[in-house]
Amino acid sequence: MIHLAQSTGAPNLRAFQRTPVELTALIITPKGTVETRIRDISPAGMFIEMEKMPAFAAVFPVLVPLPTG
């Protein structure tokens, strides 16, 4: 299921258009694995919804199980 993001009315100055999605993601951190949601993706990245943000500039693996298996 895809939900469209609500517009804020601000101009979109991004180099790549974002595509709204509803995907589960697994974030692998030094403190364990966290299940979260991806809300949109583009060729340059993705918006991952998280309760607690990692340290600025932290690098960690993100596993995205695709609906097709």
Task: Tell me about this structure.
This protein is mostly beta strands and 69 residues long. It is built from no helices and 4 strands. It has a 4-stranded antiparallel sheet, with no helix packed on it.
Helix and strand arrangement:
Blueprint: E1 19-29, E2 32-42, E3 45-49, E4 62-63
Antiparallel strand pairs: 1-2, 1-4, 2-3
Compact overview of the structure:
The chain is mostly beta strands.
- Continuous helix count: 0
Helix fraction?
Answer: under 10%
- List the strand order in the largest sheet: 3-2-1-4
The value of Rg in angstroms is: 13 Å
Query: Main sheet, how many strands, which sense, barrel?
Result: 4 strands, antiparallel
Contiguous runs where pLDDT drops below 50 for at least 5 residues: none
Strand runs, count: 4
The whole-number mean of residue pLDDT values reads: 80
What is the N-to-C succession of helices and strands?
Answer: EEEE
Give the N-to-C terminal Cα separation.
16 Å
Beta-strand percentage range: 35-45%
Principal-axes shape call: globular
Secondary structure category: mainly beta
